[in-house]
Design brief:
Layout lengths: L7 H22 L6 H14 L3 E5 L2 H11 L7 E5 L5 H8 L3 E5 L21 E5 L10 H11 L2 E5 L20 E5 L13 E5 L2 H10 L4 E3 L2 E2 L10 H10 L3 H21 L17 E2 L14 E5 L2 H10 L29 H6 L3 E4 L7 H14 L3
Parallel strand pairs: 2-3, 2-4, 4-5, 5-6
Antiparallel strand pairs: 1-7, 6-7, 8-9, 10-11, 11-12
Helix pairs in contact: 1-7, 2-7, 3-4, 3-6, 8-11
The structure holds pyridoxal-5'-phosphate.
Length: 383
């Protein structure tokens, strides 16, 4: 049986007519840049995320970049972030000219460990960029408390986490000064190309963001600061607006699949239970930890697996799209060699980079697919 990493076509088939109608409307209007199509989607996004303002931008990467630029972050500044994320989290910081300062992660949540942040703060520190990795919110209360104490900006990288919330029901993208979302096609809410969104609860920050995405233009051809072309396409906004009302049911499908995996893997005797110790040699897997009351949206369903590389090869040979996010922590990336981090500096992330393995979890998976994947994992471990 073939179980791909993701099946975008299966989802598209269910909403094809609505997508094509929305796209046709944009073509018929020939209004490709901003306008009502974008404003309507921004309003819907603000309502969905409960953010006060939502600014449509060109990608999740630009959503972070524009937030950093909005705060004037650049050369000579330091920005604290997790070492375990997609490259864009750190790449955007470096592109402003600022220095990314990496922090190790919590071994249960895979998110930045708030207890390690304060030791990294210097007089140059301007911001903290926590990531809600795989769709699970980072532990924001201690992060915000540290930020408040040291007068730092908090920019949430919520690229993988739209609709996730903490144990008080507070949604990602509303917890820091900015929230940054990606609508890359494979995301839970994915466009027909690149797109993103920056949210904020602050009126003045929002007003500046809208200008920042238009080259810092305050009136036509009048620029008081340098921004960029960070606009979301009207076509993307129209398509994403069609998809947004389906997002919760898609996310619920992912959550159901995650629960089913837990049951199936447990029944097959390959669950190791909740451990922070290395899983090498333990003959099984650890399923994602979700703190009580949190809403994990399972952009990825990530196991920690004994003999991870062998398991992945075994599953891939059996046409199961298991993947590694991410094999190399950011402090070990060649492009950051001049920052002089060494192997051993971030022991948790370095360990987990060797253990993590994402199983397909997309909502259109059939029950038979889930059973097949669990059976193959069990077979690998001789169960
Ligand atoms: C954690 C994280 N940050 C940032 C991004 C960047 O988003 P995009 O690919 O839309 O530029 C992604 C998406 O891939 C991501 O997963």
């Amino acid at each position: 049986m073939r179980v791909p990493t993701l099946d975008l076509k299966a989802q598209y088939d269910t909403i094809r007519e609505d997508i094509l109608t929305a796209a046709t409307k944009v073509f018929d209007s020939q209004g490709f840049i901003l306008g009502k199509t974008v404003q309507d989607f921004e309003a819907a996004c603000a309502e969905y995320t409960t953010a006060k303002h939502a600014v449509g931008v060109s990608s999740g990467t630009d959503a972070i970049l524009i937030a950093l630029m909005n705060e004037g972050i650049g050369h000579g500044d330091e920005v604290i972030t997790t070492t375990f994320s997609f490259f864009a989290t750190a790449g955007t910081i470096a592109r402003t000219g600022a220095t990314p300062v990496f922090v190790d992660i919590d071994p249960r949540t895979f998110n930045i460990d708030p207890a390690l942040i304060e030791a990294k703060i210097t007089p140059k520190t301007k911001a903290i960029v926590p990531v809600h990795l795989y769709g699970l919110p980072a532990d924001m209360d201690p992060i915000n408390a540290i930020a408040k104490k040291h007068n730092l900006i908090v920019i949430e990288d919520a690229a993988q986490a739209i609709g996730a919330h903490d144990d008080q029901g507070r949604q990602v993208g509303t917890l820091g000064d900015y929230g940054c979302f990606s609508f890359f096609p494979s995301k839970n809410l994915g466009g027909a190309g690149d797109a993103g969104m920056t949210t904020t609860m602050d009126d003045a920050r929002a007003e500046k963001l809208f200008k920042m995405r238009m080259h810092g233009e305050v009136r036509q051809y009048v620029h008081t600061f340098v921004g960029g072309n960070f606009r979301i396409d009207a076509l993307q906004a129209a398509i994403l607006h069609v998809k947004l009302p389906h997002l919760d049911s898609w996310t619920e499908g992912r959550q159901r699949n995650a629960d089913t995996y837990r049951e199936l893997l447990s029944e097959r005797g390959v669950l190791l239970g909740d451990t922070v110790e290395p899983v090498e040699g333990k003959g099984g897997v650890v399923t994602p930890f979700v703190p009580e009351g949190y809403r994990h949206i399972y952009h990825q369903f990530v196991l920690r697996a004994d003999r991870r590389d062998e398991l992945m090869a075994f599953l891939n040979e059996r046409e199961i799209g298991a993947r590694i996010y991410y094999p190399i922590p950011l402090h070990q990336q060649e492009c950051f060699a001049d920052l002089s981090y060494k192997t051993g500096d971030m022991p948790v992330a370095e360990q987990l980079a060797k253990e993590v393995l994402a199983l397909p979890v997309y909502p259109e998976m059939t029950p038979e697919m889930l059973v097949y994947v669990a059976d193959q994992v069990a077979q690998f471990y001789g169960k």
